[in-house]
Specification:
5-stranded mixed barrel, 2 domains, alpha+beta, about 35% strand, DNA-binding, single-stranded DNA binding, Arc Repressor Mutant, subunit A, about 260 residues, OB fold (Dihydrolipoamide Acetyltransferase, E2P), single chain
Length: about 260
C-alpha cells in the first residue's frame, strides 16, 4: 500500500491470504506522487508500482481543454512525461451546479484522484484540483516522485523495513525541507471550514512525522468532551478529500500539507 512519498505494507502477517491482503489494501486511502507516464505506461488493469497497488495519485501538470458540461468537467492534464484525460464530477442542486474550481487553461494545477481504465486507456477521476501559483511546488513535487520511486524499489526488493519512518519532508511555517534542500511553499488557509476543522487541518499540515499524525495525538489537542466531535471532523475531512490516512486508519495527513 502506498503513502504520500513512500510505501508501507498492509500490516498482515505471513499467514494471511493474498485475497485478504488485497482487500485490506483497497480499504485504506493513500496518495502517491507520480509522473503521468507512470500511469499511462502501466499495462496492469489496476495501477501498480513495483507490484504494489496504488489507490490514489497526486500529479502536477498543465491544464488543457477544460470543458464544463452539465454534470461533469473534462480536461487533459499534461506534464513533461505525457498527458492523460481527467474527469471531475460536479455536484448539482436543482438547475444549478456547484462552484467550479478556480483553475485556468494552460496553467499548472495539482490533481488528486483515482485511476480508472476505459476502453483500454487509463484516466483520472478527480477528487480535488487546485491551481499552482508557485513553481517551487512543481520542483518539490518532482523530488517527492523521485523519493517515492526509490523507496518503492528498495521496499519491493526487501531493502527496507515496510514500516520504516522516513522523515524526508517537513512543512513548517511555509518552508518545505527535503534533505538539505529547503523550498518556500505558499501557505494555504482552509476556506469555509469550521474552527475545529481548521484547527485539525493546521495540525495535520504542520506535523513532521512522515506517517502523519495519530488520532490519539489529535485527540490530545482537544478537551475530552470534544472527542466525539473530533472523530466526526476527521471523517468529514477524509470524505471531502482534505485529508487521507497513511500507514493505517488511525494516522492522518493533510492533502494540501506539502
Amino acid at each position: 500500500m502506498s503513502v504520500n512519498g513512500g510505501f508501507v505494507n498492509d500490516g498482515e502477517g505471513g499467514g494471511g491470504s493474498a485475497t485478504k491482503k488485497r482487500e485490506q489494501v483497497r480499504r485504506v486511502q493513500s496518495v502517491v506522487p507520480v509522473f503521468i507516464s507512470y500511469i499511462t505506461e502501466c499495462s496492469d488493469e489496476e495501477f501498480t508500482l513495483y507490484g504494489m497497488p496504488v489507490q490514489m495519485v497526486d500529479i502536477i501538470g498543465v491544464l488543457r481543454n477544460f470543458d464544463v458540461q452539465s454534470t461533469k468537467a473534462t480536461c487533459l492534464i499534461e506534464d513533461q512525461s505525457g498527458s492523460i484525460q481527467a474527469i471531475l464530477w460536479l455536484e448539482t442542486d436543482g438547475d444549478s451546479i456547484s462552484a467550479l474550481p478556480p483553475v485556468k487553461e494552460n496553467c499548472y494545477v495539482r490533481v488528486f484522484g483515482s485511476i480508472r481504465t476505459q476502453d483500454g486507456s487509463k484516466m483520472i477521476m478527480i477528487l480535488k484540483i487546485i491551481p499552482i501559483d508557485d513553481l517551487n511546488v512543481v520542483t518539490h513535487h518532482r523530488l517527492q516522485i523521485i523519493h517515492a520511486k526509490v523507496y518503492a524499489e528498495k521496499l519491493a526488493t526487501g531493502g527496507l523495513p515496510a514500516t520504516q519512518p522516513v522523515n524526508h519532508a517537513a512543512a513548517t511555517n511555509g518552508t518545505m525541507s527535503f534533505g538539505d534542500i529547503k523550498i518556500n511553499t505558499p501557505q494555504e488557509n482552509p476556506h469555509g471550514l469550521k474552527p475545529i476543522q481548521a484547527k485539525i487541518m493546521s495540525l495535520l499540515k504542520n506535523t513532521t512525522n512522515y506517517m502523519g499524525m495519530a488520532k490519539s495525538e489529535i485527540l490530545a489537542q482537544f478537551d475530552s468532551a470534544q472527542a466525539r466531535e473530533v472523530r466526526a471532523t476527521l471523517d468529514f475531512l477524509l470524505d471531502e478529500g482534505h485529508a487521507y490516512t497513511t500507514c493505517d486508519n488511525d494516522h492522518y495527513k493533510a492533502t494540501d500539507g506539502f
